[in-house]
Amino acid sequence: MAGFQYFPHTEEDIRAMLDRIGVSSLDDLYSDVPGSFIYDKEYDLPDAMSEQQIRDFFDRMASLTPRKTVFAGAGAYDHYTPSVIPYITSRSEFLTSYTPYQCEISQGTLRYIFEYQSLICSLTGMDVSNASMYDGPTAAAEAVRMCISATRGRNTVLVSQALLPNVREVIATYAKYSGTVIKLIACKDGRTDFADMRRLLEDGDVAGAIVPSVNRFGIIEDLDGFAAALHDAGALLTVYCDPSALAVLKTPGEWGADIAVGDCQSLGIPLCYGGPYAGFMACRNDYMRKLPGRIVGQTVDKDGRRAFVLTLQAREQHIRREKATSNICSNESLMALWVTVYMALMGPEGLKRVNELSCEGAHALYDGLLATGKFETAFKAPFLKEFVLRPLCDVKKLQQTLSDAGFFGALLTEEGYVSFCVTEKRTRAEIDALVETVRRAAL
Amino acid sequence: MKYYDKLIFELSKPGRTGYSLPEPASKDALSAIPAGLRRESDTCLPEVSEPDVVRHYTALSQMNFGVDTGFYPLGSCTMKYNPKINEEIAAMPAFSAVHPLQEDIPGINEIIDGLDHALCAITGMDHFTFLPCAGAHGELTGLMVMREYHLRRGDTGRTKVIVPDSAHGTNPASAAVCGLQVVEVKSGPDGLVDVESLRPLLGDDIAGIMMTNPNTLGLFERQIGEIAELVHGCGGLLYYDGANMNPLLGMVRPGDMGFDIMHLNLHKTFSTPHGGGGPGSGPVGVKAALADIATSLKVSGFHGNFGVMLRAYAYILSLGRQNIRLAGKLSVLGANYIKESLKDVYKLPIPSVCKHEFVFDGLVNDGAHDDVKGATTLDVAKRLLDYGYHAPTIYFPLLFHQAIMIEPTETESRETLDAFIDIMRKIAAEAAENPATLHDAPHTTPVSRPDETLAARHPVLKWQDSI
Q1: Which of A66, A408, B196, B440 is most exposed, with the fewest beta carbons within 10 Å of its own?
Q2: Are A311 and B451 in contact (CB under 8 A)?
Q3: pTM passes above 0.90
């Protein structure tokens, strides 16, 4: 047998182990599998590669992946990742552990999740957070379910059309198969239309509504009155938000929301072609026992030491099984650690500064692009780091010009606007270069 | 492991910083944002320096146990070695800096196509979608494929799904969330799905069946051929729960057994790290007729956990068509070796050859006598922690009261297994002699038997200054 670095067995080991079991060959261990199901053909896989060949292969794939300076957002933001984070998250004791079922040898994981929950509660202004979800859109889909389960007998959830398209799509997919009715709240002047929401509430059966804090046009929504209108109708308010921006923007808690969801990616998680990220989900105390996913709680051990455990598990699929309202089992634990370390490094001032720099850069780009004469204002409304413009040029050409110059931006929205995003990573020189590229191009 | 009691908030001191960012150009960089839209309250984010952060999380890590720390025989979780080269590949800036909506990326497309092709070759399916982020997410997606298949044919009455009593807990939960009613099929005394109990459940209200093969007892469902025929015969589809795919790696393909839909756990079968509970990846494979449906289901925000897919592909390339032949076999060898070496001191309810894992039903002699309470499975598990092992999965599957589910994987040496066997025998001897030693375990861990009742009754779920 040729050696393979991950399998420690020698020929002698295999022989001795087979002898103990009392069979004569490895194939005998499959005597319970009907012969017709044994795959005896050659697998259609490449020849085994050495470590160097693997490196070479991925280096070649990397060379076929052009690097762009990112001026796009739409749910994935190019914020700076401090050097410390991957060193911490790649520590074997974190990286190669399983879910913290054996709490005595998982206090590291349990403690950072407790810290994560505390930080998410603080950013969102909510009372309770779970240990994280797959991503923002799935967290939003779980919030729909939570609204239904918290308001027994109702089966409709209102979803703002100002939410990102992928959030709406994931909500719609989940809702379709669980039989939940989704009604869209229209946009007006680039914002969720409050009057339309009131109209939909009058139809009854509404368990809750999901609206963005910063919407897909980059506009900061004014959610004054939303919570009161929903609560008067016996329904819940869920706010979908960008956690990084919550360091400076009014929180779901301050808007009177019952549930806050969103994607942790903006807290220093690399873009990585869409994942892994982590969703977050937090709520008011009233709905603590409806919150899906894992939750870590503080307690004491048998000698009185502060200790942490997975708790409130009666809500989970282990116990409820066929009565479950969520099937989520794992979380995105390592990514929760990632953003916990990020928030610890940033602190209140650092996270505020991330927003200040992003906001300055975005407004500089906005003004610069308007000055080229190739765009006009789409909406007069406050924005933070992302905005849309109405293009007065050919959008395909614009995107190609930017791409040729090494930029990724000008994403097309459903209405034909183009969107841009600027984070603290974008230098003034990069912003000026993008504007200059647009100004010079014949579009 | 050393007990360390700080939370990051308790290291905070006003004026310390852990970041390095330039100054904004203007005094009020947020002037464009009206006061009414701004945050009013402070956050609890700590003010700590970079060395504080590094020491704190290093200290936390030292209270944790991973595959790199020691043997992790956790049944149904496939805790195999996580190769380091995979981490290096996943961290390459060329991939980690790509925005998910970027389209001019032939390198990434070639990786995803290559992984799709490889998984199809390994499983006998025709197409994979990578959007599901975990095993349970894959189950849910797979069931959506099943429902959509029936709905598109106008067959709206198929609202029930059959799930064996030995199934993973997420199976019935996924079904419920997907709007399907669960019908349980019993296992026979041999631990396998009883075909005679299955037959009367089949009808035109059945959307399909969810099966794990080998099942959670580690037993191969020998009658899968007949089961597939029966379920297909009534118009239903077969779903394969890939949590137990590891023993079939390089030997048996679910697609050949009649399964129409399946998920894989890249974080189990394909060596990507579990990360303390994620990120995983649960791609769903389907037969050609279902490919359009699988592709159309938007179940997560972008393209799934690409970073996890990179790791899995690096692993598959290292296996290649040569080494894959041994992967499943060696995992089965290890499991049977432990089973045969311990079955005289732990109760083995079903004595047949197992696949990658098997289940004991507690101790043969738990030390109970007169008014002395015997040692339980929980006691055995906690005692293992004292000896430097992670515990097996316990009290699952639910078929046995004292279940101990052991899965060694193919990356553990005979010496490691021998040492584990010795300790398991030692614990059995301790139980027979004085079960009290085990009731008090663990003795050497940073904390011991935290009060879970207190945690649930008086939930403290976030840090507060006052506590």
Answers
A1: B196
A2: no
A3: yes
Which pLDDT band, with edges at 50, 70 and 90, does B465 fall under? Answer: low
Looking at the fold, whether B230 and B369 belong to one and the same domain comes out as no
Burial of A81 (0-12, 13-18, 19+ CB in 10 A): middle
Contact with chain B for residue A283, Cβ under 8 A: no
Check if the beta carbon of residue B318 is closer than 8 Å to that of residue A47.
no
The A418-421 sheet, strands edge to edge: A375-377, A386-391, A418-421, A411-412
Length in residues, chain B = 467
Count of C-beta atoms within a 10 Å radius of residue A152 = 7
Q: Residue B166: its pLDDT value, please? A: 87
pLDDT for A329 beyond 90: no
User: A205 to chain B, minimum CA–CA distance in Å?
Assistant: 19
Mean pLDDT over residues B15-24, rounded? Answer: 96
Tally of domains in chain B: 3
Q: What pLDDT, on a 0 to 100 scale, did the predictor assign at position A322? A: 66
A404 touches chain B (CB under 8 A): no
- A53: chain B residues, CB-CB within 8 Å: 317
Q: What is the pLDDT of residue A320?
A: 53
Chain A residues in contact with B457 (beta carbon < 8 A)? none
Interface mutation vs chain A, best among B42, B57, B217, B224, most A CBs within 10 Å? B57
Same domain, B166 and B110: yes
Domain span at residue B257 reads 84-319
In this complex, the residue of A43, A49, A254 whose CB is nearest that of residue B318 is A49
Is A294 in CB contact (< 8 Å) with chain B?
A: yes
CB of A11 within 8 Å of a chain B CB? The answer is: no
Tens digits of per-residue pLDDT, B36-49?
999 999 999 999 99
A155 min Cα distance to partner chain B (Å): 13
Asked if residue A390 has pLDDT above 80, the reply is yes
B453 has a pLDDT exceeding 60: yes
In the predicted model, is pLDDT for residue B239 greater than 50? Answer: yes
In a domain, residue A60? The reply is no
Mean pLDDT of A19-37: 97
- Inform me whether the C-beta atom of residue A118 falls under 8 Å from chain B C-beta atoms: yes
Q: Tokens 């079903």 appear where?
A: B350
Q: Which domain CATH number covers A194? A: 3.40.640.10
Res. A324 pLDDT band, cuts 50 70 90: confident
| Percent of chain B with pLDDT strictly greater than 90 | 94
Over the stretch B368-410, which tens digit does the pLDDT of each residue have? Answer: 999 999 999 999 999 999 999 999 999 999 889 999 999 999 9
Chain A interface includes B183 (CB < 8 A): no
State whether B11 and B115 are in the same domain.
no
Nearest CA in chain B to A43: B321
A334 within 8 A of B134, measured Cβ to Cβ: no
The answer to whether residues B411 and B332 belong to one domain is yes
Look up the CATH number of the domain holding residue A420: 3.90.1150.10
Say if B419 is an interface residue toward chain A (CB within 8 Å). Answer: no
CA distance B214 to A301: 38
Q: What is the pLDDT of residue B467?
A: 45
When CB atoms are compared, the residue of B39, B271, B449 closest to A301 is B449
Q: Which helix (H) or strand (E) holds A341?
A: helix A333-371
Query: Minimal Cα–Cα distance from A103 to chain B, Å?
Result: 8
Is the ipTM beyond the 0.95 threshold?
yes
A412 at B interface, C-beta within 8 A: no
Dihedral, CA of residue A398, residue A75, residue A248 and residue A232, to nearest 10: 120
Report the alpha-carbon angle A87-A92-A95, nearest 5: 85
- Chain A CB contacts of B466 under 8 Å are none
- Best residue in A10, A134, A303 for a mutation probing chain B (most B CBs within 10 Å): A134
Phi, psi of B139 (to 5 degrees): -55, -50
Question: Has residue B77 been placed in a domain?
Answer: no
